[in-house]
Amino acid sequence: MMNTINGLNKKLLFAPILLALALNAGTYDDNYSVVKDGGVAGVQKNVDTFMNGEFEEIVRFDMIRIDCGGINPDSQNILDNSIKKIKEYVDDHKDIKVTIIGHTKPTTDDANELSVASKIHARNIEGWFTKSLDSNTSDRMSKNYALAIQKIMLENNISKEIMILENRSAQDLAYSDATTEGMNLSNRVMLTMYVALGSSDTDKDGVPDYKEKCTNTPSGVLVDEYGCPLDEDKDSVPDYKDKCSGTPMTLKVDLDGCRKNDSLALVFKFDSADLMQDSDPRIQNFSRFMLDNTGYDAEIIGHTDSDGAVPYNQDLSERRAASTKTALVEQGVDESRLTTRGDGELMPIGTNDTAEGRQANRRIEVRIFHKTSN
């Protein structure tokens, strides 16, 4: 702190330029951490940590001056802008704490009482007037200053949970105490915002970047603790994209989270809709799935190769679908959950120029869909 300028002539010389004697005017660069000395809590000044923490950012606001009538009019804008800045950080989901520290002008009952008294005597000679301020009153005033600012912040919907109040009495003067004006300028509140490490939330999903495993999550999407979109049915399609919710984890799904068309690879006799015995295991597996997942219905689609006339192949594909449905019903699947369709030779998956390709085209496909989906 700048030493007090003693002597009547010096005070008269510097009184017109009081602001030139400012110690910390405009900014507040002091940090504090809570310490204990012999079991008594105290405050340690000028350290780079607050509550033994490290921070991504520390925002120190200009001083809020307190006059006898309340907040100095010039400081009201400072408070308004400080609140606006704090709310911006809250809206950005940043993990912050805000210290609200009350201060007063010098007291007249401390160890420096004699020097203060001599200054008061000199001021009286000059026609100046200074009220005395005892330590208890200073402590109460600085606390009330901090509480008053906290009340205004609460009225502006800033959570009490992020505020930390402290009253420093007259321990830290803002300006020189060589003049009455300078002393009164030390009646103030200092706001400082501490931003926790890694509290930035780039995609605004409520999960800080340091925990984020899924970046650029669309706005408004529900996410888990790692910032990844929720996927309740664990089908690898997030809920906000999933058109078929509740899909079993073992089910292969498309980009909409719905069961892909699947081939049962059933074996039919040549030019016949009768299933061969080799098809039984596949019928049993699929019927078991349908019985275990009653929220799904199935469409059974028959196909043929290109041998024969188109109308004949269309009829054959329909009969193959119908015989597959019959086999599933015999395994206990409710008939109302199964529909059939024939696509004839129109949807080949292999070439009809080879025996292998034609065999692949003689198939049954199933389309699984959730009952609540369109």
Largest beta-sheet characterization: 6 strands, mixed
- Tell the overall outline: rod-shaped
Residues in helix, %: 25-40%
Number of strands: 12
Q: What separation lies between the terminal Cα atoms?
A: 75 Å
Spell out the helices and strands N to C: HEEEEEHEHHEHEEHEHEHE
> How many domains would you count in the coordinates?
2
The CATH superfamily of the largest domain is identified as OmpA-like domain
Provide the low-confidence segments as ranges.
1-49, 111-118, 120-130
Please identify the structural class as seen in this structure.
Answer: alpha+beta
CATH class of the largest domain: Alpha Beta
Explained architecture:
The chain has 374 residues and is of the alpha+beta class. The chain folds into 2 domains: 8-196, 60s Ribosomal Protein L30, Chain: A (2-Layer Sandwich), CATH 3.30.1330.60; 261-370, OmpA-like domain (60s Ribosomal Protein L30, Chain: A, 2-Layer Sandwich). It has 8 helices and 12 strands. Strands 3, 4, 5, 6, 7 and 8 form a 6-stranded mixed beta sheet that branches. Helix 6 (280-292) packs across helix 7 (310-330). It is rod-shaped, with a radius of gyration of 40 Å. Mean pLDDT is 76; it is low at 1-49, 111-118 and 120-130.
